[in-house]
Design a protein that fits this description.
Number of helices: 19
Distance between the termini: 42 Å
Bound molecules: fe (ii) ion
Structural class: alpha/beta
Strand content: 15-25%
Largest sheet: 8 strands, mixed
Strand order of the largest sheet: 13-22-21-14-15-20-16-19
Length: 612
């Protein structure tokens, strides 16, 4: 049985295909259209998934959409009408978008894909989230927690689920409690994201990155706008917010009266915490004090979010009758600091989150929900890795390298290639690592990565200014051999857990290791990825060789893209980014691509205004 799952029209559209309950391929649309967070109809992702599975549309049994458009339309109508006339602008915009395409999703899917109306199913947004985690996890039963901005009406759910390996309709998801719009943890966090000068739905990571530089001094103020009960239930005082009636602003003037004036978008960030020696080129004492307050506010909303998630996790534990397993999904499940706390402080032994925990993951979830719950089919699949995207043949790589004009060496022996790359890393140079199928979800996990030596603080600056062009306060992530993770991270039993495989949790780093991995130590913490040889031998062996040379089983791993661009997909894109940046060498399959002596990056003219 062949099922295509689709999520689109909000953020991060995606497609996924299941053959007899086994995931064959999944991808976000942005990797093909090169438009970050592309939310349009995922035509390219659908074509890729079908091709990878060797199917045509005629072979599909079902197409499943990740939410119920009419319920969502009802929420938008009711909300905008109840705040009319303040909402006239959002109402106008929403109506154009909805009447243009969203209301006609069923007929669109019929014509665009070429399936019959009875083959199209719709699954509620939070059920898609829940299924994306539960039916990818190894668990037979679990407590469920989904938290995001908003789906149709729901913004968070708790409940329980069972997953049946024998068939007979034993797979069920019961979301017994929910939080409803406009009360939303995701939208609360997004309002602070906008207030702190970042783009909503993409800048949330930056708030999390800024938080460790501040103290949570403004939690009382956050709790003034967001009342939280013992189970993590949330009631927002809507007089502080405007996302329910404004298309452009998330918070009201009353919010700024409480927290002070907003931070100018994308302005330079420095304070005594980030630059204790006042060595930022634009240093100004007054601005630094103001920036410190912003970092304190970031720390406060981050801490409140963690407290809410922890309380919700407790409530989910109770609701499930004390399950030892938790599955989480929704955009807030990408908050790796909160996830780390749930793993350490929550009542669960095991936590599962799949790599695309946000809305793109709904494509996989909707398809799995249809297969297991609607059709009652037994489970056959656990998502053990994140490599569900496209890969390219040796011939395609070879011809792209030839067209780029760069010199390259082909290695028959991976060991020799990795030896040479290790020497390059030890020389304080930066490597592009491009191998196999690209990752599902927002993180690069060694198939589309930029790799560097993590030992010295200066490497952060090198990667930031020469390649990524991004804000200096954003952390770089460590990747570590799984069996050595306990030496560098204090969270216990990391090798038994899934979130570190997908770089979805933050852990403390023991103090005696801070100066061993300075470039990936973010105020004593790190968002690590653990790697096992059987999952990814080339990547693992590179870390192993680096360890043999230095005694440090850790590398710096960041995504292979320039700032503001989606992660590279094709060999050509990898080579273009290589040419535009100061990446020194590129591992592309068995090829090692090099730059000539004195090479000047073609993109070195890029400045902050031109990129995101
Ligand atoms: Fe969502």
């Amino acid at each position: 049985m062949n099922i295509l799952g689709i999520s689109c029209y909000y953020h991060d559209s995606a497609a996924a295909v299941l053959v007899d309950g086994v995931l064959i391929a999944a991808s976000e649309e942005e990797r093909f259209t090169r438009k970050k967070h592309d939310y349009s109809y995922p035509e390219h992702a659908i074509n890729f998934c079908l091709e990878k599975a060797g199917l045509t549309a005629a072979d599909l049994d079902y197409v499943v959409f990740y939410e119920k458009p009419l319920l969502k339309f009802e929420r938008i109508l009711q909300t905008t009408l109840s705040t009319f006339p303040r909402s006239w602008a959002v109402f106008g915009e929403a109506m154009v978008a909805w009447f243009d395409e969203k209301l006609w999703i069923k007929s669109q899917l019929q014509t665009k894909i070429g399936v019959k109306p009875e083959q199209i199913l719709f699954v509620e947004h939070h059920l898609s989230h829940a299924a994306s985690s539960m039916f990818c996890s190894p668990f037979e039963e679990a407590a469920v927690l989904t938290i995001d901005g908003v789906g149709e009406w729901t913004t968070a759910t708790i409940g329980s689920a069972t997953a049946d390996w024998n068939g007979g309709g034993g797979s069920q998801i019961s979301l017994s409690r929910e939080l409803r719009f406009p009360h939303s943890v995701g939208l609360l966090y997004s309002a602070f994201t906008a207030y702190l000068g970042f783009r909503v739905n993409s800048g949330e990571y930056k708030v999390m990155g800024m938080a460790p530089y501040g103290e949570p001094k403004y939690m009382d103020e956050v709790y003034k706008v967001a009342k939280v009960d013992g189970d993590g239930g949330l009631t927002l005082d809507m007089s502080y917010f405007s996302y329910h009636y404004s298309p452009k602003n998330s918070f009201s003037s009353k919010f700024e009266e409480l927290f002070g004036p907003r931070r100018a978008p994308e302005s330079d960030f420095f304070s005594l915490t980030t630059h204790p020696k006042k060595d930022h080129p634009d240093w100004d004492d007054r601005v630094a004090v103001q920036n410190q307050k912003y970092a304190d506010i970031a720390a406060s909303i981050q801490r409140v979010t963690e407290e809410i998630v922890l309380k919700m996790a407790q409530a989910a534990h109770k609701e499930s009758g004390g399950s030892k397993n938790l599955v989480m999904a929704g955009g807030v499940a990408l908050n790796s600091v909160a996830n780390g706390r749930v793993m350490r402080e929550g009542p669960f032994e095991n936590v599962y989150i799949q790599p695309a925990a946000g809305d793109s993951g709904g494509a996989v979830g909707a398809a799995l929900y249809a297969y297991h719950v609607v059709l009652g089919q037994p489970r056959k699949f656990v998502m053990d890795h994140a490599y569900w995207g496209a890969d390219y043949s040796l011939a395609e790589m070879k011809s792209a390298i030839k067209a780029s004009g760069f010199e390259c060496v082909e290695f028959d022996d991976d060991d020799r290639l990795l030896d040479e790359v290790t020497d390059t890393l030890l020389d304080q140079k930066v490597i592009g690592f491009y191998r196999g199928r690209y990752e599902w979800g927002p993180r690069a996990l060694g198939h589309r990565s930029i790799i560097a030596d993590p030992r010295r603080e200066a490497m952060k600056e090198i990667v930031n200014t020469k390649i990524k062009f991004r804000e200096p306060f954003r952390p770089f992530a460590p990747v570590v051999m799984e069996e050595r993770a306990h030496e560098y991270f204090t969270t216990p039993d990391l090798e038994k857990q899934y979130p570190p495989r997908y770089m979805l949790m933050v852990s403390d780093i023991p103090e005696d290791k801070w100066d061993k991995i300075e470039a990936v130590c973010h105020n004593g913490t790190g968002r690590m990825q653990t790697v096992r040889e059987e999952w990814n031998s080339g990547y693992y062996n590179l870390i192993k060789k680096f360890d043999e040379a230095t005694g440090v089983p850790v590398l710096l791993n960041t995504s292979y893209n320039l700032r503001g661009e989606p992660i590279v997909n094709t060999p050509q894109e990898a080579l273009n980014t290589f040419a535009a940046s100061d990446i020194d060498q590129l591992v592309m399959g068995p090829f090692l691509v090099k730059k000539p002596e004195g090479y000047v990056a073609t993109g070195s003219h890029l400045d902050e205004d031109q990129v995101d």
